[in-house]
Amino acid sequence: MKIIISGAYAIGTFLAKLLSRNKEDIILLDENPENLDKISSEFDLLTMECPATDIKGLKAAGVEHADLFIAVTPNEPANIAACAMAHQLGAKKTVARVDSPAYVEEQNKELFRKMGVDDIIYPEILAAKDIINGLKMSWVRQRWDVHDGALVMLGIKLRETCEILDRPLKEISGPNDPYHVVAIKHNDETIIPGGNDTLQVYDLVYFMTTKQYIPYIRKIVGKEHYVDVQNVIFMGGGKTAARAVKMLPEYMHAKIIEQRTERCEELNNIFNEDTLVINGDGRDIGLLKEEGIRNTQAFVALTSNAETNILACLTAKRMGVRKTVASVENFDYVGTAESLDIGTIINKKAVAASHIYQMMLDANVENIRFLMSVNADVAEFTPSPDSKITRKPVKDLNLPKGVTIGGLVRDGEGMLVSGNTQIEAGDSVVVFCHNVDMKKVEKLFI
């Protein structure tokens, strides 16, 4: 597959690195040679000094043969124009990054398709959705819903209160149990578990279950004493924070602490009186106490500085906040944040890249998510008639090493998968992959 990425910034470089591991034919364009130098020396891909809307440069990059053209520069109009040009020059699919929330509304998608833009991404909205999912369940690090929750994947950090520690999975997660363990992060190792593996204290464990059994999962992992989130303090009033506050359920109340006076004024114009905007530093312990940190169940740090966010979350935890969320855009700090037990880690470029990644696949795939914590992908595939995965029961499929099927949705009903399960065309199948080329998995479904 030939892929052209315009914009060697956060999302573009991360996406190029993600795709280069699959040995795709990638060309990364940018008008600034300094942005290209580092990535070209570290990864197997071509780079070209070229503005997003330079017709001569696009032709030289071979855009007429591109299976996917991705414009993710910081310039919204340039991204849209570049996609329209790439489409006219022959690119099969195009994706543009935008900064206007109205552009991603359903009623506007057809307008952009007519312009030659097949998909629109607004990273701040995607990140905000992840934040809200995390806040709705204070005891969960990560939640991923399939078909509006017919199936649910929960990433949970195990503590001493967990009831199912130190027992083989074949004893606690058999065919008749209402959950499957699809992955375990033990210390720095990701495990796609078998029946003899055990769960250990401080493991990060990914459970697949159905919505009605979420309370049961909460009980067996010993998280019933975690209070539900009602009050949230956001540190940093940028676009992601603003979108997240707008998406908060009605029963949650938010305060935003922002250092920039002019941004505080903008936020006051955006929100009604239910959201208090405070001009100050979210690391100021005196200010946090004054704003009721002791009666706050969640603290979300979304400044542009990863170190600041990590330290602020540590401070909030020491002051009794159970649920903390940190934006960590620098991947060098992700491991540090996890080792410090920060809580939920948000990375906009990883979320956006996952959304784009699914456009590469020929199979019918609804959703792909890159899970930074376990360096793995989880995807929702729909098998075609007579695809390989529908020909035999799961136990006879000889799935590639590092691949497990967590569950499926059939006729709107979620169900877990056992070795005897026969997958059918039209099912929505949730596949978990660690160190596996997704293109290999895709072949099972087409």
Please describe what this structure looks like.
With 446 residues, this protein is an alpha/beta fold. It has four domains: 2-121, NAD(P)-binding Rossmann-like Domain (Rossmann fold), CATH 3.40.50; 139-220, 2-Layer Sandwich (Alpha-Beta Plaits), CATH 3.30.70; 228-321, Rossmann fold; 357-442, Alpha-Beta Plaits. The chain contains 15 helices and 22 strands. The strands form four sheets. It has a six-stranded parallel beta sheet, with helices on both faces. It has a six-stranded parallel beta sheet with strand order 14-13-12-15-16-17, with helices on both faces. A five-stranded antiparallel beta sheet has the order 7-8-11-9-10. Strand 13, helix 10 (261-270) and strand 14 (276-279) form a beta-alpha-beta unit. Helix 6 (123-136) crosses helix 9 (239-247). The chain is globular, with a radius of gyration of 22 Å. The two termini are 17 Å apart. The model has no long low-confidence stretch (mean pLDDT 90).
